[in-house]
Amino acid sequence: MKPLTKNQKIILAAVIIIFLVVGGIIYWLGLPKEKKMEVPFSEEKIIPEEEPQEIFNLGAEILEVNIKGNYLIAKPLDKEKEIKVVLREETEIVQLEFPFDPKSPPLAKTFTFKEIPIKIEDLKVGAQILITTGVNITTGENPFNYINQIQVMP
Question: How far apart, in whole angstroms, are the C-alpha atoms of residue 93 and residue 95?
Fold first, then answer.
């Protein structure tokens, strides 16, 4: 066999390099791909987390008035659970009244209720009230020990 010339050696080296590159590409393409985790379809709606709201008012219906204990038992309008509303000396209790005869309201679309101060003895079972607290109701603490005002609806 005749020895290879310089050109033949270069060509042979190039063919070997091309063969190695093509072989490497074929090997790389043949490697197993990352498996994507499939999540089964769910009809549940995904609700993004919201920042907690600060709520200081709550509408309720009076279930019991305890004059000696100075508290009310009330049922929030949107819940089944009863709450104990402790009245303090500073708690203001007012009866709201329309500033007009409800049977013949004025043409004006807005108005301000008259607030008439009343006492715990004037509260009636079944009355609709708006409780205003000094503590955020959603904090989990007992906000119904810190009542600023109770408004009795007309």
Answer: 7
* Residue 90 tokens, joined: 């500073």
Q: Give the tens place of pLDDT for each residue, 40-86.
A: 555 666 666 666 678 888 899 999 999 999 999 999 988 888 889 99
Give the pLDDT confidence of 127-137 residue by residue, as tens digits. 999 999 888 88
User: Residue 120 region, left (φ>0) first, then alpha (ψ -120 to 50), else beta?
Assistant: alpha
Torsion region of 79: left, alpha or beta (phi above 0 gives left; psi -120 to 50 gives alpha): beta
- CA-only gyration radius of the chain, Å: 39
The one-letter code for the residue type at 83 is: I
Domain 57-152 has CATH 2.40.50: yes
Sequence spans of domains, the chain: 1-30, 57-152
DSSP string, 54-89: P--EEEEEEEEEETTTTEEEEEETT-SS-EEEEPPT
Q: Could you tell me which residues are beta bridge partners of residue 61?
A: 75, 128
Between CA 5 and CA 38 the distance in angstroms is: 59
Q: Quote the CA–CA distance of 130 and 76 in Å, as a whole number.
A: 10
Phi, psi (deg, nearest 5) at residue 79: -135, 165
